[in-house]
TrEMBL record:
<keyword id="KW-0808">Transferase</keyword>
<dbReference type="InterPro" id="IPR023606">
    <property type="entry name" value="CoA-Trfase_III_dom_1_sf"/>
</dbReference>
<dbReference type="InterPro" id="IPR003673">
    <property type="entry name" value="CoA-Trfase_fam_III"/>
</dbReference>
<dbReference type="Pfam" id="PF02515">
    <property type="entry name" value="CoA_transf_3"/>
</dbReference>
<dbReference type="InterPro" id="IPR044855">
    <property type="entry name" value="CoA-Trfase_III_dom3_sf"/>
</dbReference>
<dbReference type="InterPro" id="IPR050483">
    <property type="entry name" value="CoA-transferase_III_domain"/>
</dbReference>
<protein>
    <submittedName>
        <fullName>Crotonobetainyl-CoA:carnitine CoA-transferase CaiB-like acyl-CoA transferase</fullName>
    </submittedName>
</protein>
<dbReference type="GO" id="GO:0008410">
    <property type="term" value="F:CoA-transferase activity"/>
</dbReference>
Amino acid sequence: MTMRPLEGIRILDLTRVFSGPWATQMLGDLGAEVIKVEQPRRGDDLRKLGPPFLKDADGAETKESAYYLSVNRNKKSITVDIASAEGQAIVRDLADRSDVVMENFKVGDLARYGLDHASLSARNPRLIYCSITAFGQTGPNRHRMGYDTLLQAMCGVMSVTGHPDGAPGGGPIKVGFVLSDLIAGSYAATAVVSALFARDARGGTGQHIDISMFDAQVAAMSHQGMHYLVSGEDPQRFGTGAPSVVPSQVFACSDGHIVLVAGNDAQFRKLAALVGLPELGTDPLYATNGARVRNRARLIPQLEAKFVARTKQAWLDDLEANGLVAGPINAVSDVFADPHVAARGLVVAATHASGGTVPLIASPMRLSGTPLDVYAAPPVQGQHTHEILSGLLGMGAAEIAALEDKKIIVD
């Protein structure tokens, strides 16, 4: 079997809920050994965010929520009470044997237990220590908690998502998945890999990585943020439309909706001819994208009147035949029924410890020389506690039993 890129790297994962587990799952997909530390009895709060919950081989619900399953494959789970001296000692010993520690506690919380960057890096100078918080380690908001909805609101995402004020259904709208967590987690994984390269390929040492969900979401505003910085004007909401490309939006057909993007002037001329309005392609009001953006209110109703006269499949067939970019608006069930999903191998199955199998969404990273072809099911709480304590830390059966008796490692 070809080695995956990060095999030989060990990640001590003190994260929970979403942004941190998303990052460590990416690193686990890349081949790192990820040891997930969970609180005894309680575990990762994400396990309980259901329904739906995974069903076992007999069709009974397990304790594993779909939410938890989405971000915890390719990991090992141990339970350790980090509020106890014995639990803190276990985590410190694991950190001594790890390349990376990742955590998403509130600023300063882990210092109470001697598990902060300063404490652990003093023992292991090569340690990469990554902290993910809502607002970062510095600044006036550093001690505030934050969740995705709050970050989408504060960072401007909701101000540019939804229909314009005054339009039917107008007002700010939240993006329908945990956007801020995903972005912060992706930046965290990239930063960790970069820090490992700096340490191992350039003779560097360990370092502290400060990832703020706020910073990450502001950075990911990208062109919308630059719109403001360049113009001094707040970007507006355009519903399904794009702020700087016209037409790029949903159109109603006689039996449903399609989405269409004419990404340049040549494509728009093709579209104008196809809908029976070839004169629009050379009209100074619409001939260039800049003109179309300025005159969208005059252009879009003319196109809408054409699209609503025919079925969506008829339009999709003609648009594709003319080399134009268009497609259906799929439900999630439609997505996973698409033959392209099967052709790309985007759903894989793994055997779960609770019985039966669990479907997983495959990593989109396709590496020809070091393929990411290992998919271990997300672990049940504490599944690997004995394995890690005896194998990695060399604890004997009596020592482990004593920890269990004191509820230090009870699942």
